[in-house]
């Protein structure tokens, strides 16, 4: 027994030694991008990266240029920062870059979901069928009714529409979007009051998970937080269980289609529950925060708010918030001003990271003609927030909110953007791109636009302190989809029925 201590110690030293040695031994080969192994063996640059990914990558880009390889926790990541060179990566005609492998490991860790053959393709075909085209039209109606239900309550106004009311703007938007999105996709029962209560409770738990999420992904949780994550996972698996689904009658075709596929593949009910949790996360983690930023930018930019209201009134007349809505959904496609506001909001606040595993040694040809060797087993990464959204050549004054940035002089949607004089295809990438592009993007946009319309057409909104600056982004959330504010805007929101 006494011998176990030294044996385990020696084993640990051997493992740590091996991992460090692997890092130390790696050398830049001819034609490979600049290699920066970082200050700490094995960890490399992980600490600086996790602290503030945006600042870290900005520093690396200044140091190494448009392509570089960095070590992060024993793994090597090659970042490509020149958007004119994204084409071959996103097309990946040779199929040597793998999105699925990395995603499978991640979802197993954070949602407990073990991927099965073909599920990734199935998610995209389910989404094409039910989150686009005719399927989307059906869902738009459900979404509008559910938004009205959430905002009015089952028996009338839940927002106290006759009095000014204060709330944290972030919480307010996230809460409404989550409840409406959750009920629309995962179904409801005949008892609307109970549904709203359950959705409210679920939202509070979702936010707990959401707060822990970035540090969970980076394996930085303390022991108590690990326990809390375990509790939350179990809770979500239970609340979203397929057994519960049987009691509901409004489960969306999107969810139904995907669960049927899993059943047919022999996936256990317990694993289907985990799949549901993953889909809840994918569908609800970004719409609330994006709607918050959009509404805040509108409140801070009265000229933008005026333009949105004018466009909406011209196209829709009065958009009343009421139970059985009659709403001309076609108008949603004829709102270039609101589209530009949403695109500008996503440009300023959506920061996804696109990751692909390099399957074989291969050459990457950059737009400028240089060729780089990518090493098998490394991860190729794009961070378009820095390399595209914040590039002053593509978007002059990139940190400023300009509601008409995506409008032409004649008021239609602007799609022509340039870098170094060349027209650029990927001038914003909030939804990712290529094989991993967000399959819910059309629903997300409609849902957020409906919410903004209902808010600006039905309520007088203002910040308690109009001089409250737009809060900075919480640096922990760079790279995880839509960012969140480092704190609620100091002032709170007043609402009054207009
Ligand atoms: C503002 C809202 C949203 C944003 C900014 C957003 C963004 C993204 C991004 C960047 C990805 C790709 C990540 C990657 O490359 O790995 C993604 C994936 C995904 N999104 Fe969204 N999303 C939003 C809303 C939604 C909604 C409403 C749904 C569904 C109803 C949805 C469903 C999904 C799914 C299922 C995936 C995973 C697809 C796969 O495995 O390839 N998203 N989203």
TrEMBL record:
It is found in: Endoplasmic reticulum membrane. GO terms for cellular component: endoplasmic reticulum membrane. GO terms for biological process: lipid metabolic process. Substrate binds at residues 109, 286. It is a single-pass membrane protein. It holds the Pfam family p450. Keywords: Endoplasmic reticulum, Heme, Iron, Lipid biosynthesis, Lipid metabolism, Membrane, Metal-binding, Transmembrane, Transmembrane helix. It comes from the Eukaryota. Its main location: endoplasmic reticulum. GO terms for molecular function: heme binding; iron ion binding; sterol 12-alpha-hydroxylase activity. InterPro entries: Cyt_P450, Cyt_P450_CYP7A1-type, Cyt_P450_E_grp-IV, Cyt_P450_sf. The chain crosses the membrane at residues 6-25. Its cofactor is heme. SUPFAM superfamilies: Cytochrome P450. Heme binds at residue 438. Belongs to the cytochrome P450 family. This is Cytochrome P450 family 8 subfamily B member 1. It comes from Capra hircus. The gene is CYP8B1.
């Amino acid at each position: 027994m006494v011998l176990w201590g030294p044996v385990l110690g020696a084993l640990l030293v051997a493992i740590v030694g091996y991992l460090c040695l692997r890092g130390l031994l790696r050398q830049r080969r001819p034609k490979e991008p600049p290699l920066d192994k970082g200050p700490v063996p094995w960890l490399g640059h992980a600490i600086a990266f996790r602290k503030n990914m945006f600042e870290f990558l900005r520093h690396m880009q200044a140091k190494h240029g448009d392509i570089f390889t960095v070590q992060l926790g024993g793994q090597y990541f090659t970042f490509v920062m020149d958007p004119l060179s994204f084409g071959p990566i996103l097309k990946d005609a040779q199929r040597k870059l793998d999105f699925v492998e990395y995603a499978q490991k991640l979802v197993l860790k954070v949602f407990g979901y073990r991927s099965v053959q073909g599920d990734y393709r199935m998610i995209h075909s389910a989404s094409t069928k039910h989150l686009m085209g005719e399927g989307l039209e059906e869902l738009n109606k459900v979404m509008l009714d559910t938004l009205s239900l959430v905002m009015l309550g089952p028996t009338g106004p839940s927002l106290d529409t006759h009095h000014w009311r204060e709330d944290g703007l972030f919480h307010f938007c996230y809460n409404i979007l989550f409840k409406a999105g959750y009920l629309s996709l995962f179904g409801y029962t005949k008892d609307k009051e109970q549904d709203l209560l359950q959705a409210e409770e679920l939202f509070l738990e979702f936010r707990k998970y959401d707060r822990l999420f970035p540090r969970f992904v980076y394996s930085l949780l303390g022991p108590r937080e690990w326990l809390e994550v375990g509790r939350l996972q179990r809770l979500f698996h239970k609340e979203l269980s397929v057994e519960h689904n049987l009691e509901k009658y409004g489960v969306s075709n999107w969810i139904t289609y995907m669960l049927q596929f899993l059943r047919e593949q022999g996936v256990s009910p317990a694993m289907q529950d985990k799949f549901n949790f993953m889909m809840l996360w994918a569908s609800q983690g970004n719409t609330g925060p994006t709607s918050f930023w959009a509404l805040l930018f509108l409140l801070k930019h009265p000229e933008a708010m005026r333009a949105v209201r004018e466009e909406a009134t011209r196209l829709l007349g009065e958009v009343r918030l009421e139970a059985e809505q009659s709403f001309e959904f076609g108008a949603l496609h004829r709102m270039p001003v609101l589209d530009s506001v949403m695109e500008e909001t996503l440009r300023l606040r959506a920061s996804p990271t696109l990751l692909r595993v390099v399957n074989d040694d291969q050459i990457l040809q950059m737009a400028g003609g240089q060729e780089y060797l990518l090493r098998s087993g490394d991860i190729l990464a794009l961070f378009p927030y820095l390399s595209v959204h914040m590039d002053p050549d593509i978007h002059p004054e990139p940190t400023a909110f300009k509601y008409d940035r995506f409008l032409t002089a004649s008021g239609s949607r602007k799609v022509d953007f340039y870098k170094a004089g060349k027209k650029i295809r990927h001038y914003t990438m909030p939804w990712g791109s290529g094989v991993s592009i967000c399959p819910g993007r059309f629903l997300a946009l409609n849902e957020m636009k409906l919410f903004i319309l209902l808010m600006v057409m039905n309520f007088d909104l203002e910040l308690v302190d109009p001089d409250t600056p737009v809060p900075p982004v919480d640096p922990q959330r760079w790279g995880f989809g839509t960012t969140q504010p480092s704190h609620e805007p100091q002032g709170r929101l007043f609402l009054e029925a207009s």
